[in-house]
Amino acid sequence: MDVIELSWWQLAMAATLVLALAGCVYWARLGVGNSLLIAAARTALQLTLVGFVLEALFAVGKPLWVALMGLGMLLLAGREVMARQNYRLRGAWGFAIGTVSMFVSAFSVTVLMLIVVIGPTPWYSPQYAIPLLGMLLGNTMTGIALALDRLTEGVRRERQLVEGRLMLGQTWREACGELRRDAMRSGLMPIINAMAAAGIVSLPGMMTGQILSGTAPALAVKYQILIMFTIAAGTGFGTFLAVSVASRRLFDSNERLRLDRLKSA
Question: Do the beta carbons of residue 70 and residue 130 sit within 8 Å?
């Protein structure tokens, strides 16, 4: 089946729906009209630029350029994790925890899937590596950001409870154990909901894109199952690591709660 080409004027017609929504937002005085329009403009600009970059990258196919592209995606995702928290750790910790957690989880799972499961030749083929890493980073980023935000908000809100438990002789892990578990649950909830609803409530994005491009539905389903499982693994491991390191950073060597290590966004 041939793929139907889309022209820029057809995309502009779709953009009128966003403009109409922005008008409704302004009329309802929701206060997010500018954010909506800016986000729509960024979507169009960023995806257009990425399209040109990927075309050049696919043509070259060198591992160095694939690695540089992945590193750039990782650093931008780390910045987004930090920016989405109302309270974040001071200094380099605020950026490093999310970035390193995504590197350990998303990159490891991506390499594992490329080498062991999918097996393209070469294994770093940008046609497979970049889209897979992008989907993993995007979802892992959301999970880690939600988890860290829930953790810092919870520790600030339950400060007296945590300090009271410390005074009773509990370790820092015991004092904030429920807060840590709640943060991890928050990070995992989006992917759990997505897997539970996949195929019943919604058709996931990758599967929809493959079907629209002419891929057989059965093959698209297999790829989507693979992606969902890898996203769940990457998000879960990244969330566990980020919450563990961040919660330890909130206590000093004497196991005293150190909220002064947080700063408001």
Answer: yes
Phi, psi of 203 (to 5 degrees): -100, 120
Question: Taking a C-beta distance cutoff of 8 angstroms, is the pair 66, 210 a contact?
Answer: no
pLDDT-derived band of residue 221, with 50, 70 and 90 as boundaries? confident
Among 139, 130, 144, which Cα is nearest to 232's? 139
What phi-psi label fits residue 61: left (phi over 0), alpha (psi between -120 and 50 degrees) or beta?
left
Taking the model in full, what pTM does it have? Answer: 0.84
- 3-state secondary structure (DSSP) of residue 260: helix
Give the closest residue to 126 by CA, choosing from 77, 72, 177, 70. Answer: 70
What whole-number distance in Å separates Cα of residue 192 and Cα of residue 98? 20
Which regions of the chain does DSSP assign to beta strands (E)? 87-89, 262-264
For 143, list phi and psi in degrees, rounded to 5. -65, -45
d(CA 231, CA 203): 16
The domain limits of the chain are: 1-60, 62-264
Q: Mutual orientation of helices 63-83 and 126-157 as an angle, nearest 10°?
A: 20
What is the secondary structure of 193-231 as a DSSP string?
HHHHHBTTTB--HHHHHHHHTT--HHHHHHHHHHHHHHH
Q: What is the pLDDT of residues 41-61, one digit of tens each?
A: 999 998 899 888 888 888 888
Q: What does the alpha-carbon distance between residue 261 and residue 69 come to, in Å, rounded to a whole number? A: 33
The runs of H, that is alpha helices, within 61-92 are 63-83
Cα 48 → chain centroid: 20
Report the residue count for the chain.
265
Q: Across the strands, what pairs with 88?
A: 263
